[in-house]
Each structure stands twice: as structure tokens, then as C-alpha cells.
Write a structure and sequence with these properties.
Distance between the termini of chain A: 21 Å
Structural class of chain A: mainly alpha
Strand order of the largest sheet of chain A: 1-2
CATH topology of the largest domain in chain B: Rossmann fold
Number of domains of chain A: 1
Number of helices of chain A: 13
CATH topology of chain A: MetI-like fold
Oligomer: heterodimer
Order of helices and strands of chain A: HHEEHHHHHHHHHHH
CATH class of the largest domain in chain B: Alpha Beta
Strand content of chain A: under 5%
Order of helices and strands of chain B: EEEHEEEHHHHEHEHEEHHEEEEEEEEEEE
Radius of gyration of chain B: 24 Å
Chain lengths: 311, 360
């Protein structure tokens, strides 16, 4: 603070502090607080607002436990409320997307940071960035076209003789979430790539060589030297991809099958179709809370500190 | 336990640049061998070729008589100590040291025991559970040596490992390294640009310039009998005279030039080449009267007190700069600035040498 004052003077420092305060208070804390507040009150017609029915209640939260359905997880039949089922699917498949992006991003990040010729890096990064210049909606629609029954992917596979019959990708081959997982992985892989790339760049190449010189095979060098060093980058990439995937509305709406429900779609339905903002708010709070707990647990398991991620 | 290394006609090109040019050297098992040269002379390239990170463009590298071409660094019986040490900062000291054993599938208890033994060997007991960041520069040095020794290499390769240490510690570590080498009997290849380090520690020294090995000899020979002007200049100071060299007889030859006539030693292989006369400042004597031979008049311009000796600089005819070292023994008279004295030297102490060997 003293440093800021000395460097920029009173005027600029005040503007900085006010802008930061505005951002945190008005754009983050206040909306969330208002949502939390609204989630505890019933959805009422305008005339009844402030009336005897407008009292503090947990009924919005209880709605998530309504409507049990019979479904199966990995062949095990279970009876579970429909929204809880959607919720668990969303968290599970977001975690899967996170794993997929990690599997793609780590080798690529290592290649860019340690193997590729420094002169070719700007070109490679540009190639990676160009798809990001197109809006997420357009990219999702592009994948919709790629994955359709008479689309280019099936045509290509048929032409190569890999398949005889077209595959209904959007209905899913393994699960009904296949298309969502594929497109989310594509959309968010760069959010995984860059934190890991930055982390590996800061690793001294001599350490990799030292491990090899001591007789280490490549996989052990990665396991004991490169991955521990890149862990903060991997962790922040995972948190970002997981939160973005779990919160994605557009991709599941565009490419999701009729059987695949994503929790943000459920929330959207409460807000937009049912116009019940109070229940939507309650669902949002549950989703936010559970995702945060999930991330904190994952960080505990992988022994990553919050300060590592903020780097 | 230790192996010899043979470099046979080894060349290494980076694009059009030839980093190492036709290197031939045979290093004996258990020898402490240093490559000495200025930065960019190719010495680190040689080290990286021996350890396997670079393959030679031409020629063969043999360790213990076995050609190493195509053998990856993790398969070679060598251990490299990096200039920046490259310790693993996220592992405690004992895991750093036993990493090579972990790779070889040694169980944890044995690794721990071995790490503690090695810490004792490098005089750092009780550091097993510390982290790298908690150690001082000299201690990190010892850990790096222990880590390399843990894999029981036949050859240790050291890439200027002492350059980051301060003077006192560097001198201490020199003696330590030499002692460890004697104790373990492992062949050491040591890379340095510090001639004092190379001369003090090595059994033999290879002096390099521009990718070529200029001379391979014992330290004393390198200093007393350099084969060319580059070696003479790199391992110490010189007074240099130009002139026309006369015919040689009994290993001596005369030279006459703008500073008078001299007589000096000449090597048989140097005859017929363009030569200059080199003589060390500590072999240059200052007298008030002209000596019988090899004597040049100079005016003293600077007297620098160095402690054990006094360095006297002067200018002779035609702006020729000369220097002499006078022992600080309290007996020898030191001339003052502005005095005219004669700088003389013994013909047996002066050498007629060609310039450095460069590629044609």
C-alpha cells in the first residue's frame, strides 16, 4: 500500500482501490449474496410479495430431492431424485473432461516447453490460439455438424473402411454424454495447456538431464522431476477446466443428446422456463458449494495448496 | 571400478560451426584429467559427448574400450556434475542422493543407508532430511558429488562445478575433490576455464582453443614447456618478443628483432615456423647494469604490490610493454616508477613458440 502510494500518488491509488472494491463488492459479493438471500424465499405471484406467505423457507432446496427415477450407474440399478442424478452426472463427466484435457495437454505442454525449437514456438502457439478466436457457440455448432449421423466424421471413417454403418455420436457410444465430453475437452484444452506450459518452462533443463544421467528412464523422470515441478500448473489447469465444464450451458445445449442433462441446463430451466428465480438460486448455491468442496477435496488428495494455484 | 576413456578423431558440428575438431586423447583409468580453455573452446561439448547428451559427428568415444555410439546417457557408466549442480529441489537431500539407486530398484531402507554413508564420505552427516534450499553453496556441492558417486560410476564428469563458489571455499573444495577422487579411484574428467584449478588438481591437462586440443601434458609441463603461444598465454603471463629466428643448434636458437638479439630454447617441431619469444615475468630479472645476453632496457611505469611478490611493469623501446615479478623477500631491490632498468632472462627459461594450432 505504501509502495503503491509512493509510486502512483494519492489520486491514482484511490482509483485503483475503488475499482478493485467495486469489482469485488458489486460484481462478486453482492450478486452472490442476493442470490443466497432469494434462495430462502418462496416463488410467489407479485401480489403476494411481502404477504403472509413470503417467509423464510428451505423448500427451494428440498425440491432437488423430489421426483425419484430409476437409473443405472455402470450397470448397477439405483433409484435417485432426477436432479441429483443430473448433478452427479455433471460432476462425474466434468471430472472426466478434466482428465481428458490433462492427458492431451501435458505431453503437448512438455513438447512446447522443452522439446520444440524455440524459433518455432510462436508459430505453434499461434496455431493453437487461432481456434480460440472463433466464439464458443460457433465451435460447438461446428462439432454438432462434425458429429451428425451424415456428417464428415462418419463419412471419413466409412471412407477409411473403419466402420460400415454410421455411428450416432450424439446419442453416445459409451454413455449418452460422449458428445458433451468430446466438445468440452476440445473447448477447454487450452485452459489446461497454458498453466502447465508455464510451469514446465520454469523447470531447469539440467534437472531433466541430471535425472537421465543418473540412469532414469523417461517415465520416471516425468514422475519424479517434471510432474512434481509442474504440479501447481496442473492443479490450476484442473480447477479451471473442471469449473468451466461443470458450469457450461452452451455446449450441452448444442451437442447434448436427449438423454444427457447437464446441471446448468436444469438451473437455466428454473430461471428461464419456470421463471422461478428462487429455486434457480437455491440450485445455483448447491452447485457452487458442492463444486467448491469437490475442488478442495481434490486439492487435499493431490497435496496442492491454494497459494500454488494462484501463482 | 574405474574405466579409461578414449576419444578417437572426435569431431562435433553444430550446423556449419565445428565445435570440436579432431580430438584425440586417451584418459587412463583412475586419472584426474582436466580440459582447460576459454569459454566456447568446445570443452563442455566434449563432456556432453562423453556423457551421451550429444553424439559426435565423426569419430568414436570409447569408455572402458567399448564404443559408446548409440548408448543413451541413462545407459552409460558415467555421472555428470552440472555447472549449476541441478539438484532436485522438491526432494529431501537423501532422496536426491539415492535417486540413481531408486532408478535401479533398490529398496528404501538400503537407499537411505547408502545415502547416509555417502553424506559421511562428503563430510556432511546429518543433512539427510534437509531440503536443498536449506544448504549453503559448498554443502550443495557436496550433495551433488554424493549423488553422482551413489550410482558408482566408472567415470565422473565435472562441468566447472566450483565456479559459483567464493575463493576460499573454492580452494577448500579443490583439495576435497582431489581427496575424494584418490579415495574412490574413479576416473575424473574435469572442465574448467580456471588455469589455477586445472594445474593444481589434475594428473594431466588438455588445453583447448577453438575446438582443438592444443596440448596434453602434466600440469608442470603445460606451464614450463607450452607447445605454442596460446597455451603459454592461457596458463600464465608472458613477455613476448618478435624477430627473425636463426638456425637451431642443440635445442637453442638465436633471434634478432627490434629489441635486440636474444637466445632461447626451441622445440624440434617448431623449427621453420613463424615464431615469437615467450618468457614468464617471474623468470625476468631486473638489473641496473646490462646483462651479457637477453637484456632489454625499460622504463618502469607501474609498481604493483601483490603480497608475496611485487609486479613491476615497464615500457621498452617502441612502446613494448614488459613486466617482471620481484620476490618480496626484503633483499631484492625494487625499482621505483620512472627508473631505467634492464629486464634480463636466462636463455634456458625462454621459449620460441608458434601461434596456436588452428584449423587450416
Amino acid at each position: 500500500m505504501q509502495d503503491l502510494l509512493r509510486r502512483y500518488g494519492t489520486g491514482l491509488t484511490t482509483i485503483f482501490c475503488l475499482l478493485v472494491a467495486f469489482w469485488i463488492l458489486v460484481l462478486v459479493i453482492l450478486p452472490n449474496f442476493s442470490m443466497l438471500f432469494e434462495s430462502f424465499f418462496p416463488y410467489l405471484p407479485v401480489v403476494e410479495l411481502g404477504g403472509p406467505k413470503d417467509v423464510f423457507t428451505m423448500q427451494n432446496y428440498e425440491k432437488i430431492l423430489a421426483n425419484p427415477i430409476e437409473t443405472s450407474w455402470f450397470g448397477v440399478p439405483v433409484t435417485i431424485p432426477i436432479h441429483v442424478s443430473t448433478f452427479i452426472d455433471t460432476v462425474f463427466f466434468s471430472a472426466l473432461v478434466t482428465l481428458m484435457t490433462l492427458i492431451f495437454a501435458y505431453p503437448l505442454a512438455y513438447f512446447l516447453a522443452k522439446v520444440a525449437h524455440p524459433k518455432s514456438i510462436p508459430t505453434l502457439l499461434l496455431l493453437l490460439f487461432i481456434p480460440m478466436w472463433v466464439s464458443e457457440a460457433l465451435r460447438a455448432f461446428a462439432w454438432y455438424i462434425i458429429l451428425t449421423f451424415n456428417g464428415p466424421l462418419n463419412a471419413l471413417l466409412k471412407a477409411l473402411g473403419i466402420i460400415d454403418q454410421g455411428i450416432r455420436w450424439q446419442n453416445g457410444v459409451f454413455t449418452s454424454y460422449d458428445a458433451i465430453v468430446i466438445v468440452l475437452t476440445y473447448c477447454y484444452v487450452l485452459f489446461m495447456l497454458f498453466p502447465i506450459y508455464t510451469a514446465i518452462t520454469s523447470l531447469d533443463t539440467n534437472q531433466i538431464e541430471a535425472a537421465e544421467d543418473l540412469g532414469s528412464p523417461w517415465w520416471r523422470t516425468h514422475w519424479r522431476v517434471v510432474i512434481p515441478h509442474a504440479k501447481p500448473g496442473i492443479a490450476s489447469g484442473c480447477v479451471m477446466v473442471f469449473m468451466l465444464s461443470a458450469g457450461s450451458l452452451l455446449v450441452p445445449t448444442v451437442v447434448g443428446s436427449t438423454k444427457a442433462n447437464w446441471f446448468p441446463q436444469t438451473i437455466y430451466t428454473w430461471f428461464n422456463d419456470a421463471l422461478d428465480w428462487n429455486t434457480g438460486a437455491a440450485y445455483s448455491m448447491i452447485f457452487l458449494l458442492v463444486c467448491i468442496i469437490f475442488v478442495i477435496l481434490a486439492m487435499r488428495v493431490f497435496k496442492v495448496k491454494l497459494s500454488d494455484i494462484a501463482k | 571400478m574405474s574405466a579409461g576413456i578414449d576419444l578417437e578423431n572426435v569431431c562435433c558440428d553444430f550446423g556449419t560451426f565445428r565445435a570440436v575438431d579432431n580430438a584425440n586423447v586417451s584418459i587412463k583409468p583412475g586419472e584426474f584429467f582436466s580440459f582447460l580453455g576459454p569459454s566456447g573452446c568446445g570443452k563442455t561439448t566434449i563432456l556432453r559427448m562423453v556423457s551421451g547428451f550429444i553424439e559426435p559427428t565423426e569419430g568414436a568415444i570409447k569408455i572402458g574400450g567399448k564404443d559408446m555410439r548409440g548408448t543413451r546417457p541413462n545407459q552409460r557408466p558415467t555421472a555428470l556434475i552440472f555447472q549449476n549442480l541441478a539438484l532436485f529441489p522438491l526432494m529431501p537431500i537423501w532422496e536426491n542422493i539415492s535417486f540413481g539407486l531408486e532408478v535401479r530398484g533398490v529398496d528404501k531402507a538400503t537407499r537411505r543407508k547408502k545415502a547416509e554413508e555417502l553424506l559421511k564420505l562428503v563430510d556432511l552427516p546429518g543433512a539427510a532430511d534437509k531440503m536443498v534450499s536449506q544448504l549453503s553453496g559448498g554443502q550443495k556441492q557436496r550433495v551433488a558429488i554424493a549423488r553422482a558417486l551413489a550410482v558408482e560410476p566408472q567415470v565422473m564428469l565435472l562441468d566447472e562445478p566450483l565456479s559459483a563458489l567464493d575463493l576460499k571455499l573454492r580452494q577448500h573444495m579443490r583439495a576435497e575433490l582431489r581427496a575424494i577422487q584418490k579415495r574412490t579411484g574413479v576416473t575424473f574428467i574435469y572442465i574448467t576455464h580456471d588455469q589455477g584449478e586445472a594445474l593444481a588438481m589434475s594428473d594431466r591437462v588438455g588445453v583447448m582453443s577453438q575446438g582443438r586440443i592444443q596440448q596434453i601434458a602434466e600440469p608442470r609441463d603445460i606451464y614450463d614447456n607450452p607447445v605454442n603461444g596460446f597455451v603459454a598465454g592461457f596458463v600464465g603471463e608472458n613477455n613476448i618478443f618478435e624477430g627473425d629466428v636463426g638456425p637451431a643448434s642443440a635445442g637453442m636458437a638465436g633471434m634478432s628483432g627490434p629489441h635486440g638479439a636474444f637466445r632461447a630454447r626451441i622445440a624440434p617441431e617448431a623449427q621453420g615456423k613463424a615464431l615469437k619469444l615467450y618468457v614468464r615475468p617471474e623468470h625476468t630479472v631486473l638489473t641496473t647494469a646490462k646483462a651479457a645476453e637477453n637484456s632489454v632496457e625499460m622504463e618502469v611505469t607501474e609498481v604493483a604490490f601483490e603480497g608475496a611478490f611485487i609486479s613491476v611493469h615497464g615500457v621498452a623501446a617502441a612502446g613494448k610493454r614488459l613486466s617482471a615479478e620481484v620476490k618480496n623477500d626484503g633483499v631484492t631491490v625494487v625499482p621505483g616508477v620512472g627508473e631505467k632498468v634492464y629486464a634480463s632472462f636466462d636463455a634456458a627459461r625462454a621459449l620460441l613458440l608458434p601461434d596456436a594450432t588452428v584449423r587450416e
